[in-house]
């Protein structure tokens, strides 16, 4: 079976883990945590980085320091992994689900912009925070949100869990990496992400005060002075030194991972074009990192569930994309702006094997299997 996505752990991972064990530093204090934070901040171009026990924990803390709280509204992408939205619920705030644009599959930020301006004019509640998700390795259009920040003081949190290394290549943000353009960025090092620490996350920001408040919340809000004195409800969200050791080893190979992802995408683009599908998004103003190469099958040909099963029979592991958040039980009554594009992406979307270690031969196997499956009339809807 050609797996959908699996990590490459053949760098310094075991060497650094041995170092942790030999030194006795295995928990949330240790040299790897600090080193990982410093070098990660440098790699993405942020001033500060705070390591967390997961991407979801990073989002929870980032949203809280950004001002998400009971009674507040947080705008978020409708088409995303549910962790993006659960983190809003943890703060007690309400989610406003915003549909995708069809070009990048990311939040339709123009639409949100117009809606916020209208809400302000009509005296309706406006979001305190906008959590924009860069899905599947492609940056979202941020300019409309930066305008909202300037006009209404809305804080921008970027969920960059899937898009480490992606950047804008034109416009106001040209040269900036995702996770560094809003007020706070969040990343995930889960096993399936661009790089892994076995489980972990990172908060990035240029704002020293936000970084300090985030760090404080991840360490049980314990004050540096006094004995077990805590000034608010904090969390045990620090990354362990063991996890940071793996993260550090992976970070050393991040450039190679990103090169591999882009080469994989280029080959899929070259080989898939004759098929009845739309290839992975790549806007002219973006340099995507292609975390998980995903396509939209044309409307008519086939039922995507059947395609996944048929590909599995040909030893290719593919997977459908997420149902829109507005379909998930906890969020069925959430406020939303549109949702039809998210529905369409869900209905027709298919992710293809994208491990950094996949070979061109294996990619050909994937393409041939997909060609065979899509030409088989029995899969038609
Ligand atoms: C993976 C992911 C998260 C959560 O990260 P974890 O490390 O698994 O907690 C959040 N948002 C998005 C978009 C993700 O893909």
Automatic annotation (TrEMBL):
<dbReference type="GO" id="GO:0030170">
    <property type="term" value="F:pyridoxal phosphate binding"/>
</dbReference>
<comment type="similarity">
    <text>Belongs to the DegT/DnrJ/EryC1 family.</text>
</comment>
<dbReference type="GO" id="GO:0008483">
    <property type="term" value="F:transaminase activity"/>
</dbReference>
<keyword id="KW-0808">Transferase</keyword>
<feature type="modified residue" description="N6-(pyridoxal phosphate)lysine">
    <location>
        <position position="193"/>
    </location>
</feature>
<keyword id="KW-0663">Pyridoxal phosphate</keyword>
<dbReference type="InterPro" id="IPR015421">
    <property type="entry name" value="PyrdxlP-dep_Trfase_major"/>
</dbReference>
<dbReference type="GO" id="GO:0000271">
    <property type="term" value="P:polysaccharide biosynthetic process"/>
</dbReference>
<keyword id="KW-0032">Aminotransferase</keyword>
<dbReference type="InterPro" id="IPR015422">
    <property type="entry name" value="PyrdxlP-dep_Trfase_small"/>
</dbReference>
<dbReference type="Pfam" id="PF01041">
    <property type="entry name" value="DegT_DnrJ_EryC1"/>
</dbReference>
<protein>
    <submittedName>
        <fullName>DegT/DnrJ/EryC1/StrS aminotransferase</fullName>
    </submittedName>
</protein>
<dbReference type="InterPro" id="IPR000653">
    <property type="entry name" value="DegT/StrS_aminotransferase"/>
</dbReference>
<feature type="active site" description="Proton acceptor">
    <location>
        <position position="193"/>
    </location>
</feature>
<dbReference type="InterPro" id="IPR015424">
    <property type="entry name" value="PyrdxlP-dep_Trfase"/>
</dbReference>
